[in-house]
Write the C-alpha coordinates for this entry.
Amino acid sequence: MRVRAASVHPDVWHVVSGRPYVLRLMGAGFSKPKNPIPGTDMAGIVESVGGSVTRFRPGDPVFGETVVTFQWVNGGAFAEYVSVHHELLARKPDNITFEQAASVPTSGFIALLNLRGLNQLRPGQKVLINGGGGGVGSLALQITKAHGAHVTAVDSTSKLDMLRSLGADEVIDYTREDFTRRGVRYDLIFDVPGNHPFSACRRALTPDGRYVLIGHEHFGASGKRVFGLVPYFLSLMVLSRFVKQLRGPGLPMPTKKDAMAVLRNLLEVGKITPIIDSTYHLSDVREAFRHMIEDELHGKVILTVVDAV
Ligand SMILES: NC(=O)c1ccc[n+]([C@@H]2O[C@H](COP(=O)([O-])OP(=O)(O)OC[C@H]3O[C@@H](n4cnc5c(N)ncnc54)[C@H](OP(=O)(O)O)[C@@H]3O)[C@@H](O)[C@H]2O)c1
Protein backbone atom coordinates (compact mmCIF):
# COMPACT_ATOMS: atom_id res chain seq x y z
CA MET A 1 0.00 0.00 0.00
CA ARG A 2 1.14 3.50 -0.78
CA VAL A 3 -0.15 5.38 2.27
CA ARG A 4 -1.99 8.64 1.68
CA ALA A 5 -3.28 9.22 5.22
CA ALA A 6 -3.14 7.53 8.63
CA SER A 7 -4.87 8.36 11.90
CA VAL A 8 -3.42 9.26 15.29
CA HIS A 9 -5.58 7.84 18.08
CA PRO A 10 -5.30 6.77 21.75
CA ASP A 11 -4.34 3.17 20.97
CA VAL A 12 -1.27 4.37 19.07
CA TRP A 13 -0.32 6.30 22.22
CA HIS A 14 -0.64 3.09 24.29
CA VAL A 15 1.99 1.29 22.22
CA VAL A 16 4.34 4.24 21.72
CA SER A 17 4.34 5.04 25.45
CA GLY A 18 4.23 1.38 26.54
CA ARG A 19 1.48 2.16 29.03
CA PRO A 20 -0.19 0.60 30.82
CA TYR A 21 2.67 -1.86 31.19
CA VAL A 22 0.37 -4.88 31.03
CA LEU A 23 -0.19 -4.20 27.32
CA ARG A 24 3.50 -5.00 26.71
CA LEU A 25 2.70 -8.59 27.68
CA MET A 26 -0.13 -8.67 25.14
CA GLY A 27 2.12 -8.65 22.09
CA ALA A 28 3.19 -5.00 21.76
CA GLY A 29 6.78 -5.74 22.83
CA PHE A 30 8.27 -5.87 26.33
CA SER A 31 11.20 -3.42 26.48
CA LYS A 32 10.37 -1.66 23.21
CA PRO A 33 7.71 -2.08 20.52
CA LYS A 34 8.24 -5.20 18.39
CA ASN A 35 7.37 -3.21 15.29
CA PRO A 36 9.12 0.19 15.43
CA ILE A 37 6.60 1.87 13.12
CA PRO A 38 3.36 3.03 14.80
CA GLY A 39 -0.10 3.38 13.28
CA THR A 40 -2.96 0.93 12.91
CA ASP A 41 -5.18 2.38 10.25
CA MET A 42 -4.76 4.17 6.97
CA ALA A 43 -6.09 4.93 3.51
CA GLY A 44 -4.09 4.84 0.33
CA ILE A 45 -3.47 3.28 -3.05
CA VAL A 46 -2.73 -0.36 -3.74
CA GLU A 47 0.84 -0.50 -5.03
CA SER A 48 1.07 -4.23 -5.72
CA VAL A 49 -0.79 -7.40 -4.75
CA GLY A 50 0.22 -10.93 -3.84
CA GLY A 51 -0.37 -13.72 -6.35
CA SER A 52 -3.54 -15.03 -4.69
CA VAL A 53 -5.22 -11.64 -4.20
CA THR A 54 -8.18 -11.09 -6.52
CA ARG A 55 -10.16 -8.44 -4.60
CA PHE A 56 -7.84 -5.54 -5.41
CA ARG A 57 -5.56 -4.36 -8.18
CA PRO A 58 -2.69 -1.87 -8.22
CA GLY A 59 -4.11 1.64 -8.33
CA ASP A 60 -7.24 0.85 -6.27
CA PRO A 61 -8.04 3.41 -3.54
CA VAL A 62 -8.60 1.47 -0.29
CA PHE A 63 -8.71 1.94 3.47
CA GLY A 64 -8.43 -0.35 6.46
CA GLU A 65 -6.50 -1.56 9.48
CA THR A 66 -2.92 -2.74 9.22
CA VAL A 67 -3.04 -5.13 12.18
CA VAL A 68 -4.62 -8.55 11.97
CA THR A 69 -4.98 -8.90 15.76
CA PHE A 70 -5.99 -6.29 18.36
CA GLN A 71 -5.11 -2.58 18.25
CA TRP A 72 -2.42 -2.54 20.97
CA VAL A 73 0.50 -3.20 18.65
CA ASN A 74 2.33 -0.98 16.20
CA GLY A 75 0.90 -1.62 12.76
CA GLY A 76 3.34 0.29 10.55
CA ALA A 77 0.77 2.73 9.11
CA PHE A 78 2.85 5.86 9.85
CA ALA A 79 4.96 5.30 6.77
CA GLU A 80 5.02 5.92 3.04
CA TYR A 81 4.40 2.24 2.31
CA VAL A 82 2.92 -0.57 4.39
CA SER A 83 2.13 -4.20 3.69
CA VAL A 84 -1.45 -5.12 4.64
CA HIS A 85 -3.48 -8.33 4.53
CA HIS A 86 -6.15 -7.81 1.86
CA GLU A 87 -8.96 -8.98 4.18
CA LEU A 88 -8.38 -5.93 6.38
CA LEU A 89 -9.09 -3.57 3.50
CA ALA A 90 -12.15 -2.22 1.71
CA ARG A 91 -12.42 0.00 -1.33
CA LYS A 92 -12.55 3.67 -0.34
CA PRO A 93 -15.97 5.19 -1.12
CA ASP A 94 -15.71 8.01 -3.67
CA ASN A 95 -17.68 10.43 -1.49
CA ILE A 96 -15.02 10.72 1.24
CA THR A 97 -11.40 11.89 1.24
CA PHE A 98 -8.41 9.70 2.05
CA GLU A 99 -8.08 11.63 5.33
CA GLN A 100 -11.68 10.83 6.30
CA ALA A 101 -11.29 7.21 5.26
CA ALA A 102 -8.11 6.83 7.35
CA SER A 103 -9.94 8.06 10.46
CA VAL A 104 -12.47 5.24 10.49
CA PRO A 105 -11.04 1.66 10.56
CA THR A 106 -9.68 1.25 14.13
CA SER A 107 -12.35 3.38 15.84
CA GLY A 108 -15.05 1.84 13.66
CA PHE A 109 -13.95 -1.69 14.49
CA ILE A 110 -13.95 -0.92 18.24
CA ALA A 111 -17.44 0.58 17.89
CA LEU A 112 -18.86 -2.36 15.93
CA LEU A 113 -17.16 -4.92 18.18
CA ASN A 114 -18.87 -3.40 21.20
CA LEU A 115 -22.19 -2.81 19.45
CA ARG A 116 -22.71 -6.48 18.62
CA GLY A 117 -26.38 -7.29 18.84
CA LEU A 118 -27.25 -3.93 17.33
CA ASN A 119 -29.96 -5.59 15.26
CA GLN A 120 -31.80 -6.30 18.51
CA LEU A 121 -32.09 -2.54 19.02
CA ARG A 122 -35.66 -1.48 18.20
CA PRO A 123 -36.32 1.87 16.50
CA GLY A 124 -36.79 4.62 19.06
CA GLN A 125 -34.97 2.82 21.85
CA LYS A 126 -32.86 5.13 23.93
CA VAL A 127 -29.08 4.98 23.56
CA LEU A 128 -26.61 7.12 25.49
CA ILE A 129 -23.10 7.58 24.13
CA ASN A 130 -20.76 8.89 26.82
CA GLY A 131 -17.76 10.51 25.10
CA GLY A 132 -19.79 10.91 21.88
CA GLY A 133 -17.42 13.54 20.51
CA GLY A 134 -14.36 11.26 20.38
CA GLY A 135 -13.07 8.87 17.74
CA VAL A 136 -15.06 5.81 18.82
CA GLY A 137 -18.03 7.67 20.32
CA SER A 138 -18.73 9.77 17.21
CA LEU A 139 -18.97 6.59 15.11
CA ALA A 140 -21.06 4.74 17.72
CA LEU A 141 -23.40 7.75 17.76
CA GLN A 142 -23.85 7.63 13.99
CA ILE A 143 -24.10 3.82 13.79
CA THR A 144 -26.80 3.60 16.49
CA LYS A 145 -28.62 6.53 14.85
CA ALA A 146 -28.51 4.63 11.55
CA HIS A 147 -30.28 1.78 13.38
CA GLY A 148 -33.12 4.09 14.36
CA ALA A 149 -32.15 4.67 17.99
CA HIS A 150 -32.95 7.87 19.90
CA VAL A 151 -29.41 8.94 20.76
CA THR A 152 -28.23 11.13 23.61
CA ALA A 153 -24.57 12.10 23.36
CA VAL A 154 -22.43 13.32 26.26
CA ASP A 155 -19.26 15.36 25.89
CA SER A 156 -17.69 18.73 26.73
CA THR A 157 -19.29 22.13 26.05
CA SER A 158 -17.45 22.95 22.85
CA LYS A 159 -18.37 19.64 21.20
CA LEU A 160 -22.14 19.87 21.63
CA ASP A 161 -22.79 21.50 18.23
CA MET A 162 -20.68 18.81 16.56
CA LEU A 163 -22.71 16.11 18.34
CA ARG A 164 -25.95 17.66 17.07
CA SER A 165 -24.54 17.85 13.54
CA LEU A 166 -23.73 14.14 13.74
CA GLY A 167 -27.38 13.41 14.47
CA ALA A 168 -27.63 13.31 18.27
CA ASP A 169 -31.24 13.81 19.36
CA GLU A 170 -30.14 15.16 22.73
CA VAL A 171 -26.80 16.35 24.06
CA ILE A 172 -25.46 16.59 27.60
CA ASP A 173 -22.51 18.72 28.67
CA TYR A 174 -20.54 16.58 31.10
CA THR A 175 -18.98 19.67 32.70
CA ARG A 176 -22.46 20.79 33.82
CA GLU A 177 -24.61 17.71 34.19
CA ASP A 178 -24.21 14.13 35.39
CA PHE A 179 -26.20 11.83 33.08
CA THR A 180 -26.57 9.23 35.83
CA ARG A 181 -28.60 11.70 37.93
CA ARG A 182 -31.14 12.96 35.37
CA GLY A 183 -33.79 10.37 36.16
CA VAL A 184 -33.75 9.20 32.52
CA ARG A 185 -33.21 5.52 31.74
CA TYR A 186 -31.52 4.22 28.61
CA ASP A 187 -31.68 0.87 26.79
CA LEU A 188 -27.98 1.05 25.99
CA ILE A 189 -25.17 3.02 27.60
CA PHE A 190 -22.03 3.02 25.44
CA ASP A 191 -19.41 4.43 27.79
CA VAL A 192 -16.06 5.54 26.36
CA PRO A 193 -14.47 7.49 29.27
CA GLY A 194 -15.88 5.24 32.02
CA ASN A 195 -15.86 8.13 34.48
CA HIS A 196 -18.83 6.86 36.50
CA PRO A 197 -18.82 3.59 38.43
CA PHE A 198 -21.18 0.95 37.04
CA SER A 199 -23.38 1.32 40.14
CA ALA A 200 -24.08 4.93 39.08
CA CYS A 201 -24.62 4.05 35.41
CA ARG A 202 -27.07 1.36 36.47
CA ARG A 203 -29.39 4.09 37.81
CA ALA A 204 -29.67 5.31 34.22
CA LEU A 205 -30.36 1.88 32.66
CA THR A 206 -33.72 0.24 32.02
CA PRO A 207 -34.06 -3.19 33.71
CA ASP A 208 -33.35 -4.87 30.34
CA GLY A 209 -30.81 -2.25 29.28
CA ARG A 210 -27.18 -2.96 28.51
CA TYR A 211 -23.98 -1.28 29.67
CA VAL A 212 -20.90 -1.38 27.43
CA LEU A 213 -17.59 0.00 28.71
CA ILE A 214 -14.98 1.01 26.15
CA GLY A 215 -12.52 2.54 28.60
CA HIS A 216 -10.04 5.40 28.22
CA GLU A 217 -6.72 5.93 29.99
CA HIS A 218 -6.72 9.68 29.20
CA PHE A 219 -3.08 9.42 28.09
CA GLY A 220 -1.83 8.31 31.47
CA ALA A 221 -3.90 10.79 33.49
CA SER A 222 -5.86 7.91 35.01
CA GLY A 223 -2.60 7.08 36.86
CA LYS A 224 -3.03 3.32 36.45
CA ARG A 225 0.42 2.73 34.98
CA VAL A 226 0.76 -1.01 35.47
CA PHE A 227 -2.58 -2.66 34.85
CA GLY A 228 -4.60 0.24 33.44
CA LEU A 229 -8.30 -0.54 33.29
CA VAL A 230 -7.76 -4.31 33.09
CA PRO A 231 -8.77 -4.97 36.76
CA TYR A 232 -11.95 -2.91 36.28
CA PHE A 233 -12.86 -4.84 33.12
CA LEU A 234 -12.26 -8.13 35.00
CA SER A 235 -14.48 -7.02 37.89
CA LEU A 236 -17.28 -6.17 35.44
CA MET A 237 -16.85 -9.59 33.82
CA VAL A 238 -17.30 -11.29 37.20
CA LEU A 239 -20.27 -9.05 38.00
CA SER A 240 -21.86 -9.90 34.64
CA ARG A 241 -22.59 -13.40 36.01
CA PHE A 242 -25.10 -11.78 38.34
CA VAL A 243 -26.13 -8.58 36.52
CA LYS A 244 -27.74 -9.08 33.13
CA GLN A 245 -27.19 -5.44 32.12
CA LEU A 246 -23.49 -6.29 31.86
CA ARG A 247 -23.94 -9.38 29.71
CA GLY A 248 -22.89 -9.25 26.08
CA PRO A 249 -25.26 -10.30 23.30
CA GLY A 250 -23.60 -13.74 23.08
CA LEU A 251 -22.64 -13.17 19.46
CA PRO A 252 -19.24 -13.93 17.91
CA MET A 253 -16.83 -11.07 17.27
CA PRO A 254 -17.15 -9.63 13.75
CA THR A 255 -14.19 -10.26 11.48
CA LYS A 256 -12.32 -7.17 10.38
CA LYS A 257 -13.33 -7.97 6.78
CA ASP A 258 -17.02 -7.93 7.75
CA ALA A 259 -16.58 -4.81 9.87
CA MET A 260 -14.87 -2.99 7.00
CA ALA A 261 -17.73 -3.94 4.66
CA VAL A 262 -20.29 -2.55 7.14
CA LEU A 263 -18.32 0.65 7.66
CA ARG A 264 -17.80 1.13 3.93
CA ASN A 265 -21.53 0.80 3.24
CA LEU A 266 -22.43 3.28 6.00
CA LEU A 267 -19.85 5.76 4.66
CA GLU A 268 -21.00 5.35 1.07
CA VAL A 269 -24.65 6.07 1.86
CA GLY A 270 -23.70 9.01 4.08
CA LYS A 271 -24.83 7.46 7.36
CA ILE A 272 -21.34 7.99 8.78
CA THR A 273 -19.52 11.28 8.26
CA PRO A 274 -15.97 11.20 9.66
CA ILE A 275 -14.92 14.50 11.23
CA ILE A 276 -11.30 15.63 10.91
CA ASP A 277 -9.85 17.92 13.57
CA SER A 278 -6.52 18.56 11.86
CA THR A 279 -3.97 17.09 9.47
CA TYR A 280 -0.20 16.98 9.87
CA HIS A 281 2.51 15.83 7.54
CA LEU A 282 4.06 12.51 8.50
CA SER A 283 7.27 14.32 9.44
CA ASP A 284 5.32 16.30 12.09
CA VAL A 285 4.10 13.21 13.91
CA ARG A 286 5.52 14.43 17.23
CA GLU A 287 3.41 17.61 17.05
CA ALA A 288 0.37 15.56 15.99
CA PHE A 289 0.76 13.44 19.15
CA ARG A 290 1.20 16.51 21.34
CA HIS A 291 -1.99 17.99 19.90
CA MET A 292 -3.95 14.80 20.53
CA ILE A 293 -2.72 14.49 24.11
CA GLU A 294 -2.83 18.13 25.25
CA ASP A 295 -5.52 19.94 23.24
CA GLU A 296 -9.26 19.56 22.91
CA LEU A 297 -10.05 17.79 19.66
CA HIS A 298 -13.06 18.20 17.39
CA GLY A 299 -12.59 15.10 15.28
CA LYS A 300 -9.64 12.96 14.35
CA VAL A 301 -5.95 13.92 14.01
CA ILE A 302 -4.64 12.71 10.66
CA LEU A 303 -1.15 12.27 9.25
CA THR A 304 -0.81 12.76 5.53
CA VAL A 305 1.94 11.46 3.32
CA VAL A 306 1.79 14.15 0.68
CA ASP A 307 5.09 13.19 -0.97
CA ALA A 308 3.75 9.79 -1.93
CA VAL A 309 0.80 11.17 -3.93
N1 LIG B 1 -13.14 -1.75 24.86
C1 LIG B 1 -12.56 -2.06 23.71
O1 LIG B 1 -12.95 -2.99 23.00
C2 LIG B 1 -11.39 -1.25 23.25
C3 LIG B 1 -10.54 -1.75 22.28
C4 LIG B 1 -9.50 -0.96 21.86
C5 LIG B 1 -9.33 0.29 22.41
N2 LIG B 1 -10.14 0.75 23.37
C6 LIG B 1 -10.00 2.09 23.97
O2 LIG B 1 -11.01 2.88 23.41
C7 LIG B 1 -10.64 4.23 23.61
C8 LIG B 1 -11.08 4.96 22.35
O3 LIG B 1 -11.22 6.24 22.61
P1 LIG B 1 -11.47 7.33 21.50
O4 LIG B 1 -10.60 7.09 20.34
O5 LIG B 1 -12.91 7.51 21.26
O6 LIG B 1 -10.89 8.54 22.37
P2 LIG B 1 -11.08 10.06 22.20
O7 LIG B 1 -11.13 10.38 20.75
O8 LIG B 1 -10.04 10.69 23.08
O9 LIG B 1 -12.54 10.34 22.79
C9 LIG B 1 -12.87 10.35 24.14
C10 LIG B 1 -13.99 11.36 24.30
O10 LIG B 1 -14.49 11.29 25.63
C11 LIG B 1 -14.62 12.64 26.11
N3 LIG B 1 -14.60 12.69 27.56
C12 LIG B 1 -13.53 12.82 28.40
N4 LIG B 1 -13.96 12.84 29.67
C13 LIG B 1 -15.31 12.70 29.62
C14 LIG B 1 -16.31 12.66 30.62
N5 LIG B 1 -16.01 12.77 31.92
N6 LIG B 1 -17.60 12.52 30.22
C15 LIG B 1 -17.91 12.42 28.92
N7 LIG B 1 -17.00 12.48 27.93
C16 LIG B 1 -15.71 12.61 28.28
C17 LIG B 1 -13.45 13.35 25.49
O11 LIG B 1 -13.63 14.75 25.56
P3 LIG B 1 -12.54 15.75 26.17
O12 LIG B 1 -12.00 16.51 25.01
O13 LIG B 1 -13.32 16.62 27.07
O14 LIG B 1 -11.49 14.94 26.89
C18 LIG B 1 -13.49 12.79 24.09
O15 LIG B 1 -14.39 13.51 23.27
C19 LIG B 1 -9.15 4.27 23.81
O16 LIG B 1 -8.81 4.70 25.10
C20 LIG B 1 -8.74 2.83 23.61
O17 LIG B 1 -7.66 2.44 24.42
C21 LIG B 1 -11.19 0.01 23.78
In short: Residues 9-11, 14, 71, 107, 110, 113-114, 130-131, 133-137, 154-156, 174, 192-193, 195, 214-217, 296 surround NAP (CB under 6 Å).
